[in-house]
Each structure stands twice: as C-alpha cells, then as structure tokens.
Amino acid sequence: MNDRLLQQILLEARTHNGWLAEPIDDAALHRLYEALRLGPTAANSVPARIVFVKSPEAKERLRPCLAPGNVEKTMSAPVTAIIAYDTRFHEKMPKLFPARPTMGEALAGMPPEQRDFFLLQNASLQAGYLILAARALGLDCGPMAGFDREQVDAAFLADVPWKSILLINLGHGDPAKLYPRNPRLDFEEACRIA
C-alpha cells in the first residue's frame, strides 16, 4: 500500500459529523458495494445487507429512529447506509461456497447464540470494509450506533429477514465541523507479541 492511500483511508481520515451539500449518485454506491463485497468473511458467508437511505422521504422515515445527538448529522448526510445482517444468509451458501454443498445446512444448524455472534461478527467486518472502501473512493464516513434498531427494522426491513446493526453516514465531510481528534492507545497498551 502506498503511503498516500494509507493516509487517505486511515491515518488522516476522520469520522465526520457535518456534510457538504454534494450528492452521491447511485453509480458511486454500486462501485462502493463492488469493492467492499470482496473482503473476506468466515466461510465466504458475506451476511451483511445494506440499505442506502438517500431520498428525502426515506430520510424522514429514518429521523424518528435516531438518537437525538445523531439527527442533524444524519439528516444532512447525502446517504445513510443501514448495515444489517441476513438471518437467512445460509440460503445463499450454495452460490457463495459451491465447493461445500452442505455448508449452508451446517451454518443454519448452529446454536442460536453462536449463529447470532457469527452474523454480527461477519456483518461488522463488512461494515469496516465499507468504511475503508468509501474512504478509498474519496468519500467520508460517520459510523454510529445511536439508533433504535427495532424502529429501523420496522421502517426499512419489515419485508426481509434482515436485522440492523449499524448506521454509516456517507458523503463529503465538512472539515469545519470536525472535532479535535481524540487520542488512541499506544502499541504497548493495546498489543502483545507472543
């Protein structure tokens, strides 16, 4: 990885709370998905599902689901991605893992607690890929967990077996609305070499 890209996707990238009034077209969202879908997941299960909330009407449906501190930044973002996982992800396994025809049945038969963890873990991993891919494509991100999941599921996912886990605002961030960067842990505080 060249240093410029590392700067763009991690070292200089920030979580944005304010947005410039620049729309994101559907082609950019397709390109974003094409990039993130190739990131690895356990058994190539790719359980994440995404609803890109763009229209004013859809944004208004999202408004009552948001924690008060997330309303303004979400309503002003050009797009908000609802990251969810598909509770019936195992039905796609014949396509996703053709070398093991019984993989879907094995995953469907996992104990519920283990299965829920598997789904959350892998869909969260894909959310990380979305953030990295978005930044690599020149978009800024504002991920957040401050929302009512049951309300989001009822408003956007009632017709599918998906469960929301995270919201990510997407657009071109307004640098004037950035907060000072908070500290991070040093290597010695967060890592061990065994």
* Low-pLDDT windows of residues: none
Strand pairing plus helix content: what structural class?
Answer: alpha+beta
Roughly how many Å apart are the termini?
26 Å
The number of helices is: 9
Strand content: 5-15%
Biggest sheet details: 4 strands, antiparallel
**Level of helix content?**
40-55%
Order of helices and strands, N to C? HHEHHEHHHEHEH
Number of strands: 4
Shape: globular
- Widest β-sheet, arrangement of strands: 1-2-4-3
C-alpha Rg, in Å? 18 Å
How are the SSEs ordered, and which strands pair?
Elements: H1 3-11, H2 26-36, E1 48-53, H3 56-62, H4 71-76, E2 79-86, H5 93-96, H6 103-108, H7 112-136, E3 140-144, H8 149-156, E4 162-171, H9 187-190
Antiparallel strand pairs: 1-2, 2-4, 3-4
Describe this structure in words.
- With 194 residues, this protein is an alpha+beta fold.
- Helix content is 41%, strand content 15%.
- Strands 1-2-4-3 form a four-stranded antiparallel β-sheet, sandwiched between helices.
- Helix 2 (26-36) crosses helix 7 (112-136).
- The model has no long low-confidence stretch (mean pLDDT 96).
Q: What are the salient characteristics of this protein?
A:
four-stranded antiparallel sheet, alpha+beta
Task: Write a brief structural summary.
The protein is built from nine helices and four strands; from the N terminus they run ααβααβαααβαβα. It is α+β, with helices and mostly antiparallel strands and 194 residues long.
